[in-house]
Amino acid sequence: MVIAIGFEGSANKLGIGIVKDGEILANCRRTYITPPGEGFLPRETAEHHQQNIHEVLKEALDQSGIKPNEIDVVCYTKGPGMGAPLMVCAIVARTCAKLWNKPILGVNHCIGHIEMGRLITKANNPTVLYVSGGNTQIIAYSRQRYRIFGETIDIAVGNCLDRFARVLKLSNAPSPGYNIEQMAKKGKKFFQLPYCVKGMDVSFSGILSLMEDRIDELLKDYTPEDLCYSLQETVFAMLVEITERAMAHCGSDEVLIVGGVGCNEHLQEMMGVMCSERGAKIFATDERFCIDNGVMIAHAGALAHASGTRMEFKDATITQRYRTDDVLVTWRDD
């Protein structure tokens, strides 16, 4: 039985979670929210994490009822992510590991999302669509690696949605993507946008550039709700297409959507239609586990620790670029 604590801070969410043998004991989180029209920068995001991390750690320990001496392994997000915020969590995790005399383990953020999704939904061997503000990948497991079948060749889908929310000066609370989703529900008139699928990869930067450059003239003929609706329909259709192609290649009958954009109910609905046509099942989680959190890092770290993965303290560093397929998956033998 492994009790693990996980520190997550790769972007604007700061999360600390504690798990015991797949059971969630604590899932505490703080979000750095910037004014409408602004994104979050590494330095300010790191300062937010610094100011809040002690409080969140205390909250997680109190909520779980676990004492530091009961913890088996301290896990933290090694990457990918923004350098300065990652560093804050890594330093606190290293300090806790030293103070409590516990082993430390760096976890790949993407694999944290995948393993959390598998735990919550009980999906067996799904084709995974990982969509967030920093990542867009279509992933399937094979021979002890999570293989990337397709990905964005420029910006992530969540980044595209967030930056369009900035163009419209939408609020960043609770998140820009959520506010676009709500506005899109009221959209009636569809504006034809470029559809950029290149083999198994997708491209979003040109779609965003077109919207940014022509926003003033577009708003003469379309409402902001129409534009949110048009953007969502286009980018989600692209994602469904590459997911279906990966499923066909792998002979898969399960899709798991993870990452912050995975909360979007319209994306889940569009993916559900495709799955029902193929006789496949769709799995997704709610915002507690879709959005970055510490529990997913604790859970993925606990799986790795239980299967014998170890990290020397000198290797407990961060890396902003850390590929999903760089990780040897020691805990799956299928």
From TrEMBL:
<dbReference type="GO" id="GO:0002949">
    <property type="term" value="P:tRNA threonylcarbamoyladenosine modification"/>
</dbReference>
<keyword id="KW-0963">Cytoplasm</keyword>
<protein>
    <recommendedName>
        <fullName>N(6)-L-threonylcarbamoyladenine synthase</fullName>
        <ecNumber>2.3.1.234</ecNumber>
    </recommendedName>
</protein>
<feature type="binding site">
    <location>
        <position position="181"/>
    </location>
    <ligand>
        <name>substrate</name>
    </ligand>
</feature>
<keyword id="KW-0012">Acyltransferase</keyword>
<dbReference type="InterPro" id="IPR043129">
    <property type="entry name" value="ATPase_NBD"/>
</dbReference>
<dbReference type="GO" id="GO:0000408">
    <property type="term" value="C:EKC/KEOPS complex"/>
</dbReference>
<feature type="binding site">
    <location>
        <position position="113"/>
    </location>
    <ligand>
        <name>a divalent metal cation</name>
    </ligand>
</feature>
<dbReference type="InterPro" id="IPR034680">
    <property type="entry name" value="Kae1_archaea_euk"/>
</dbReference>
<feature type="binding site">
    <location>
        <position position="177"/>
    </location>
    <ligand>
        <name>substrate</name>
    </ligand>
</feature>
<comment type="similarity">
    <text>Belongs to the KAE1 / TsaD family.</text>
</comment>
<feature type="binding site">
    <location>
        <position position="109"/>
    </location>
    <ligand>
        <name>a divalent metal cation</name>
    </ligand>
</feature>
<dbReference type="GO" id="GO:0061711">
    <property type="term" value="F:tRNA N(6)-L-threonylcarbamoyladenine synthase activity"/>
</dbReference>
<feature type="binding site">
    <location>
        <position position="162"/>
    </location>
    <ligand>
        <name>substrate</name>
    </ligand>
</feature>
<feature type="domain" description="Gcp-like">
    <location>
        <begin position="29"/>
        <end position="298"/>
    </location>
</feature>
<feature type="binding site">
    <location>
        <position position="130"/>
    </location>
    <ligand>
        <name>a divalent metal cation</name>
    </ligand>
</feature>
<feature type="binding site">
    <location>
        <position position="292"/>
    </location>
    <ligand>
        <name>a divalent metal cation</name>
    </ligand>
</feature>
<dbReference type="Pfam" id="PF00814">
    <property type="entry name" value="TsaD"/>
</dbReference>
<feature type="binding site">
    <location>
        <position position="264"/>
    </location>
    <ligand>
        <name>substrate</name>
    </ligand>
</feature>
<dbReference type="GO" id="GO:0005737">
    <property type="term" value="C:cytoplasm"/>
</dbReference>
<keyword id="KW-0808">Transferase</keyword>
<dbReference type="InterPro" id="IPR000905">
    <property type="entry name" value="Gcp-like_dom"/>
</dbReference>
<dbReference type="InterPro" id="IPR017860">
    <property type="entry name" value="Peptidase_M22_CS"/>
</dbReference>
<keyword id="KW-0539">Nucleus</keyword>
<dbReference type="GO" id="GO:0005634">
    <property type="term" value="C:nucleus"/>
</dbReference>
<dbReference type="InterPro" id="IPR017861">
    <property type="entry name" value="KAE1/TsaD"/>
</dbReference>
<keyword id="KW-0819">tRNA processing</keyword>
<dbReference type="GO" id="GO:0046872">
    <property type="term" value="F:metal ion binding"/>
</dbReference>
<feature type="binding site">
    <location>
        <begin position="130"/>
        <end position="134"/>
    </location>
    <ligand>
        <name>substrate</name>
    </ligand>
</feature>
<keyword id="KW-0479">Metal-binding</keyword>
